[in-house]
Amino acid sequence: MRDIVIKTNPDIEAVFNKYPDKIRNKILNLRKLIIETANEIEELTDIEETLKWGEPSYLTKIGSTIRIDWKENKPNQYAMYFKCTSKLVPSFKMIYTNLFTFEGNRAIVFKMNDKIPEFELKNCISAGLTYHKIKQLPMLGL
User: Fold this and answer.
1) Is 7 strand, coil or helix?
2) Which end of the chain, C or N, has fewer beta carbons within 10 A?
């Protein structure tokens, strides 16, 4: 596996450090899955790790923004967010109806004790990171 170039905003580390310990590990695991998935996509050479709305966000030239976060007002869950006007979450809902919990058309939500189905989540991440190349495909090619 090659190493993709990660262009990281220096302010992102402070955001990760603000999460409570048990949450930080969960969010960092989602980050790891995003970076691993990006490394597996041949056409990607770099990924931007930045902040949008104060949340860790991941962008590629051919994809749609993916954000990850935990909200204090929902302390027992954390999520991976996708652009709500895209076909991403609606497609994920059709394919992974019984596997993931969704929040509207914008997020896959995880409870604190959930075991994350990594293979399927990486399929969703891949669709997000390459969205502009696959959005015309039925079910995004999933």
Assistant:
1) strand
2) N
User: Any idea which residue has 């007002």 for tokens?
Assistant: 73
Burial level of 58, CB count in 10 A (0-12/13-18/19+)? buried
Structure tokens at 22: 């048990």
Domains assigned to the chain: 5-134 (3.90.1150.200)
Q: What is the DSSP letter of 68?
A: E
pLDDT in tens, the chain (142 residues): 568 899 999 999 999 999 999 999 999 999 999 999 999 999 999 999 999 999 999 999 999 999 999 999 999 999 999 999 999 999 999 999 999 999 999 999 999 999 999 999 999 999 999 999 999 988 888 8
Residue 64 Cα distances to 46, 56, 83, 113, angstroms: 14, 14, 7, 28
With contact defined as beta carbons under 8 Å apart, do 133 and 62 qualify? yes
Partnered with residue 111 across adjacent β-strands are 77
> Distance of alpha carbon 80 from its chain centroid, rounded?
5
Termini Cα distance of the chain:
22
- Residue 79 pairs in a beta bridge with 69, 109
